[in-house]
């Protein structure tokens, strides 16, 4: 079980960056025009152009905090970090906005978009499922690793 948790956690170090660049959704304003693919990185790039402080904050919470948590859990799994730091890593995981970002995306997908009275079109893309899986896997691995260190 421990080796499986280690492998799963290590895979998140590869899958999270792929999910950040993967298309989460395709959106457009008119049904007959092509759809634009949107990813986490494209959203962060848009924010960087308008508000650097918000972009720094969101980059930390959406990218660095989840990655720090995954690395920390991996270090604990390989006995390179004290298991007493698991609550701190859980706190860092709570700071991570991955789950909040995911919920916001689902709300946008559910409600659709409307600009100047024109209804838009939003479709899910494969990256949304990958990102959702990474978030769920991260929480599950952290929970199971914490249980394993409590024993």
Describe what you observe in this structure.
The chain is mainly α and 151 residues long. The chain has one domain (2-20, 36-150). Helices cover 70% and strands 10% of the residues. It is built from 6 helices and 5 strands, in the order αββααααβββα. The protein has helices at residues 2-21, 40-50, 52-77, 86-95, 98-111, 126-150, and strands spanning 25-28, 36-38, 114-115, 118-119, 121-124. A 3-stranded antiparallel sheet has the order 2-1-5. It has a two-stranded antiparallel sheet with strand order 3-4. Helix 1 (2-21) packs antiparallel against helix 6 (126-150) and helix 2 (40-50) runs antiparallel to helix 3. The mean pLDDT is 82.
Question: Which short descriptors sum up this protein?
Answer:
70% helix; 151 residues; three-stranded antiparallel sheet; 5 strands; mainly alpha; two-stranded antiparallel ribbon; elongated
Task: Give the strand tally.
Answer: 5
Overall pLDDT level: 82
Q: Any low-confidence stretches, pLDDT <50, length ≥5?
A: none
**Sheet of most strands:** 3 strands, antiparallel
Distance from N terminus to C terminus (CA atoms, Å) equals 13 Å
In one word, what is the shape?
A: elongated
What proportion of the residues is helical, as a percent range?
A: over 70%
Number of helices: 6
**Cα Rg:** 18 Å
> Order of SSEs, N→C?
HEEHHHHEEEH
The SS-based structural class is: mainly alpha
Strand content: 5-15%
């Amino acid at each position: 079980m421990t080796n499986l948790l280690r492998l799963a956690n290590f895979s998140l170090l590869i899958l999270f960056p792929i999910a950040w660049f993967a298309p989460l959704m395709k959106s457009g304003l008119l049904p007959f025009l092509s759809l634009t693919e949107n990813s986490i990185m494209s959203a962060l790039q848009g924010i960087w152009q308008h508000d650097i402080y918000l972009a720094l904050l969101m980059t930390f919470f959406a990218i660095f905090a989840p990655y720090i948590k995954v690395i920390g859990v991996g270090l604990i799994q390989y006995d390179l970090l004290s298991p007493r730091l698991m609550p701190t890593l859980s706190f860092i995981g709570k700071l991570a906005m991955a789950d909040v970002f995911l919920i916001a995306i689902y709300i946008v997908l559910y409600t659709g978009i409307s600009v100047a009275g024109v209804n838009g079109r939003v479709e899910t893309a494969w990256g949304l499922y990958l990102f959702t899986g990474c978030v769920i896997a991260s929480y599950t691995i952290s929970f199971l690793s914490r249980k394993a260190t409590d024993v």
